[in-house]
Amino acid sequence: MSAPIEDYALISDLETAAMVGRNGAVDWLCLPRFDSPACMAALLGTEEHGFWRVSPLARGPCTRRSYEPDTLVLRSEWETATGAVRVTDFMPPRSEVPCLVRVVEGLSGAVPMRSELQLRFHQGRVVPWIRAVDRCAVAVAGPDAVWLDADGPVRAVGGGDSTLHDFTVPAGRRLALTLVWSPSHLPGTPAPLCIPAETLLKETRDFWRLWSGQCRYEGPWRDAVLRSLITLKALTYAPTGGIVAAPTTSLPGCIGGERNWDHRYCWLRDSTLTLSCLLRSGYRDEASAWLDWLVRAIAGDPADLQTVYGVGGQRLLPETEAPWLPGYEGSRPVRFGNSAMNQFQLDVYGEVLDALCLSLRAGIPMAAHVWGLVEALMGFVQRHWREPDQGLWQVRGPARQFVHSKVMAWVAADRALRMGQLLGRNGPSDMWRAMRDEVHRQVCREGWDGRQRSFVQSYGSSALDASALLMPRLGFLPALDERVLGTVRAMRGLNHGGFVRRYAPGRDGVPHADGANGAEGTFVACTLWYVDALAATGHAEQARESFERVLAIRNDVGLLSEQWDPDAGRQLGNTPQAFSHIALVETAFALTASGSAAAPPRRTRA
């Protein structure tokens, strides 16, 4: 039986990430990058697909765990019949090759421990050769080599295709286990194995505490905001500045269903919110790096603009299935890659231009050639904005005239005009202004349902869509416009257990225009958009209560996945989800600025 999604904590070296369960097992790890093949994939199968557990020999979940304050250093503690022990897990920010360190410390008594490492390269499929090199166990398969070292006395047990070490830690004793990846063709011991674990731990703590000290948010939800920002930093691929949506793939939106997507890539839909989140929080360097990644990734013909790219900006992300993996709680298929790269999504043009405008207003220097990019993007939008597309939610059904896509076409023209004013470039401003006005009139006419007194998902449809809540934030209509007020009221129709669906399920359980079978949970980001809309339309108390409800569904170390199932009381979807944590930060800032945070909040997890 798989552990609940909320059982997992994240550690990262800013190039890849590991998911650590409450039982002390690393059940997901891709090396050497976020989007590399997994060498531990028990998360999507069984222990036969790769894991690394360090825990008391008696096993069982830890008694308690937490991150060290202001860091991504995870501490898990077990209280057993013979004593208490702590395991400290961390990944030093990358300098050469990826490294995962697990420090075991006796707190009282003497606790028998076991480290059990079972590597399965190439998405949990390939069994490596294992050999001893000096005091290390080295597993090799194809291009990959993984080294495991212990800095104290351990006893190797078992053998075969696993590496087991038994040891006992008395009170006050520490022992470190260090796992390092390297290309299999390189000779010699990887550099991190030559550095004491205590040195690596100190450097990792110092890095995160220095970084966390830059956070500007000083409102009542600082702990939650800072944990979300640390998570966002952990999902950043430092060499390029790209930020992955999540470090996992195929965690389902419906248990046992087919809504299993690979989120180990960078989505343009997150562009403006990511920039806004980083800039207002005080992380200008990260915002500039994300913007640089964005401009490099979209270089080329505007007709070839994708909704999703790889961490290096790569365009080819072919989607494949892994039939040898049974999936999380039987949720199949398990997918690697994402075919959304081939979709036409009109909204991403508005996202890109909105991000460029935001960065310009924030004082981030804009290279001279970027104005040419603005003109090229606008030329494409002018020619194609009337066409149907797959929309914000990347539907795999027929293309439609999605209202949010048209709103983002309006945003594209509006932000291009604003940038032209800031830069003193008129360009084809009259044509852009005329297009902006035409789009606005069309959306207000074709996207409005007079019977429901609400904007809807697509032209000619009566289905609601939570993306309509973004209209006031985007500047399309004022928050107190009667059409916005009506839309916010209508969104009660998407409420489920105090949280908001992205759109309503169809009569047969298949959401409208979705193209995928099965139901799904409520969306964390959509619920937070609803909170923002409540605050903007004068419902401060209701907004605050709804925000506290979202904070309460974070796991014990403050992480949010993509979705929440109010009926089962569990997280769903890939985790931790950048979209959810970005929205949390944005909402905390919005509530604090609007005065909606005036009442003392209930205590939240750090």
Low-confidence stretches: 602-606
Largest sheet: 15 strands, antiparallel
The structural class is alpha+beta
Mean pLDDT: 94
Distance between the termini: 29 Å
The counted number of beta strands is 28
Number of helices: 14
How much of the sequence lies in strands comes to 15-25%
Rg estimate, integer Å: 25 Å
The dominant shape is globular
Approximately how much helix is present in the residues? 25-40%
Q: Can you characterise this structure?
A:
The structure is a single chain. The chain is α+β, with helices and mostly antiparallel strands. It contains 14 helices and 28 strands. The strands form 7 sheets. It has a 15-stranded antiparallel sheet that branches. β3 (25-30) and β4 (38-40) form a beta hairpin. α4 packs antiparallel against α5, α8 runs antiparallel to α9 and α13 (540-551) runs antiparallel to α14 (578-594). The radius of gyration is 25 Å and the shape is globular. The protein starts with 8 loop residues before the first strand and ends in a 12-residue tail after the last helix. Mean pLDDT is 94; it is low at 602-606.
